[in-house]
Amino acid sequence: MTTAAENEFLTRIGPGTPMGTLLRQYWIPACLASELKADGAPLRLMLLGEKLIAFRDSAGKIGIFDHRCPHRCASLFFGRNEEGGLRCAYHGWKFDTEGNCLDMPNVPGEHDLASHVKARAYKAAERNGLVYVYMGERTQAPPLPAIEALLSPPGETALFCRQRECNWLQALEGDVDTAHFTFLHVGKVAPDEVDPNHMERWQLLDRAAQYQVKTADWGTMYAAFRPATQGHYYYRYAHMVMPFWTLFPNGPIAGNILAQGWVPMDDTHTMVFTLMWKGATPPLLNKLDGSQIPHLLRESPMQPNTTDWFGRWRTVASAENDYLIDRDMQRTESFSGISGLFPQDSAMTESMDAIADRTLEHLVPSDRMIVMTRRRLYEAA
Ligand code: FES
Ligand SMILES: [Fe+2]
User: Fold this and answer.
1) 135 phi and psi, to 5 degrees?
2) Residue 225 CB–ligand 1 contact under 6 Å
3) Quick one: 289 exposed, middle or buried, by C-beta within 10 A (0-12, 13-18, 19+)?
4) Measuring from atom 3 of ligand 1, which residue has the nearest CA?
5) 270 near 166, Cβ under 8 Å?
6) How far, in Å, CA of 298 to CA of 241, rounded?
7) What is the DSSP secondary structure assignment for residue 71, as one 8-state letter?
8) Of 2, 22, 69, 218, which has the highest C-beta tally within 10 A?
9) Residue 111: what pLDDT?
10) Gap from CA of 178 to ligand 2 centroid (Å)
11) How much is the pLDDT for 267?
């Protein structure tokens, strides 16, 4: 069982917390490269409980700062991004992408003073359409993550973000919990409705897999297995790669080049970065008669992004509208009555409360990967 103290330890990620310190040892995805235009509007970013501002200067370099101007703390969100730096709208101090103060126009003979003032800037990096930030204390940042999906050429890989309004850990746990797939997502699909040769049919035939779980230097992994043809088993593998990446089973393993990063915005909001190789074999989407399996859409309608700290990449289906649950559908053709994979998962993980109280759980063998992953993170922190 997870105690209340362990739950606090695992879930809180602000500055100075043990888990927050662990996460700050890694480069973390900050935003999509396409969200930052040269000399464009600065972007509000909430990451690990810190309010940051990101911008791309005239030369294309990216800066990520504490959003408060080091003069008197006005937000640099309102700043002017122009001519090689971000200029505070209050008294005109100007900063380059590394946080160096280039100009202090309200101070006579400012040059000496400017060289002593710095915005609190973090190291930023850009690779394959993703912007990363290093928020740790090391002077030499570690290398960028070397997960295959993050290294594939951008044109070959679908890359998108979605926000989850709950603590990062319960969101991540949903991704290493293969047991829910045959209920939440395809609980109303009968084995004889799908292609008898599609390997995912084995999970419809046996909805209570057995598990092997293992820790590794880089995280944790499981194999969920169930009987398939005579003398064979159907295995589903997944990995949790430190500190918050999941590689989940979505097709034959050779082409299953994907990753999701469950990046804590603060203790109760998470930004999920998804990367999926476009050449992968598509998962089970259709029934034998060619019709689409109801409500299993991979893409969900999105709200327009706003400039709010939590205004980016939100699905239309949300807690405020009960994820648009349709009770008639739930009786007839869909296990959840909710449309779309992501909203189905959101309804489950967000409804646990903003931070799930794990002292109330009754864990069973199918939760072993979740237990092992918590322990792995706990020990690392
Ligand atoms: S608060 Fe930014 S220049 Fe004064
Ligand atoms: Fe799911």
Assistant:
1) -105, 15
2) no
3) exposed
4) 91
5) yes
6) 23
7) T
8) 69
9) 67
10) 8
11) 98
Residue ranges of E strands in 169-279: 210-216, 219-227, 233-241, 245-247, 258-266, 269-277
Instruction: State both tokens at 35.
Output: 């969200």
Region of 345 on the Ramachandran plot (φ > 0 left; ψ -120 to 50 alpha; else beta): alpha
Q: What is the pLDDT of residues 78-131, one digit of tens each?
A: 999 999 999 999 999 999 999 999 999 999 876 678 888 999 999 999 999 999
CA distance 233 to 327: 36
**Whose atoms come closest to the Cα of 344: which ligand?**
2
Reference 49, options 131, 168, 201, 188; nearest CA is 168
The tens digit of pLDDT for each residue in 131-166 reads 999 999 999 999 999 999 999 888 999 999 999 999
Beta-carbon count within 10 A of 16 CB: 8
pLDDT of residue 128: 96
pLDDT of residue 114: 84
Q: Which residue has the tokens 């996460």?
A: 23
CB count, 10 Å around CB of 256? 20
Scanning the structure block, which residue is given the tokens 């706003």?
Answer: 306
pLDDT of 124: 98
For ligand 1, whether the C-beta of 263 sits within 6 Å is no
Residue ranges for the chain with pLDDT beneath 50: none
| Cβ proximity of 220 and 376 under 8 Å | yes
Asked if residue 237 has its Cβ within 6 Å of ligand 1, the reply is no
Q: Is the CB of residue 180 below 6 angstroms from any atom belonging to ligand 1? A: no
Phi-psi region for residue 290, left (φ > 0), alpha (ψ -120 to 50) or beta?
Answer: left
